[in-house]
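Onboarding guide, step 5: your first structure request.
Type a short instruction followed by the sequence, for example:

Predict the 3D structure of this protein.
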Amino acid sequence: MNFGEAIEAIKAGMPVCRSGWNGKGMFLVYVPGTPQVASKAGSPYRATGITKADIGPHIDMFTASGCFQPGWLASQADVLADDWQIFTK
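The system replies with structure tokens like these:
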């Protein structure tokens, strides 16, 4: 798939990855956002004085180290690649 097709797939709820990532178990997921999330006491968010806020839609990456990294950004190589695929375990 190309990048545009990968974006359509991820927005349809399918995790996607580049073929070069697949051996590492890395993939992307679309997070549609969450309205009015309460910030926890002691968190950096609460330190701003904001107690509730919307979380906007974004893309997270499941990394090779086994955690989700919020706010993944595509590189130029990612945008121009034709090796996108649906992630399968």
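Each response can be followed by summary notes, for example: The chain has a mean pLDDT of 94.
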